[in-house]
Amino acid sequence: MANQRQARRRAVEARRTRVAELMLANPGISAVAIGRQLGVSHTTAAKDVRAIREEWAERRRQAYEERLVEDLIRTDAAIAALWPNVAAGKGWAIDRLVSLITTRMKLLGLDMVRHEVDIGEILARYLARAAEGEDASAGA
Asked: What is the pTM of this model?
C-alpha cells in the first residue's frame, strides 16, 4: 500500500516536471494543450499547472525574504560602522545615516505607509533634549 502511494507520488512528480518544462518552453500554453501532449485530462493538467505556479510563487517569496534579510543585515552593519562619526557630529556621516535609514524604511515597506506627525512636537522634544545636554555639559 505504501509502495503504491510512493509510486503514485513519483508519477505525479514526473508528470509535473514535464508540465513545468512545457510551461517554460511555451509560455501561455493552455491546460488543454498540456493535457493533450501528456495524455491526461485538462482538469489534471490544470491542477498540475496550479500546483507548479504555487510552488514557483513560494520559491520567489522565499528568495525575496532571504534577500530582504541580507539587505537589512548589511544596512544595520553599515549604520553600526558609521555611528561613531554620526555621534561625533560629522555632517557627511549624518547624511549617510539618513540615507541608510531611508533604505531600511523602503526595505521594510514603511515608506508606503502614511505617517501623521506633529513637527512642532518633534522639534520641541529635540530642543528639550538639546537643552538638557547643554545643562549637563555646563554642570560638568
From this structure: 0.58
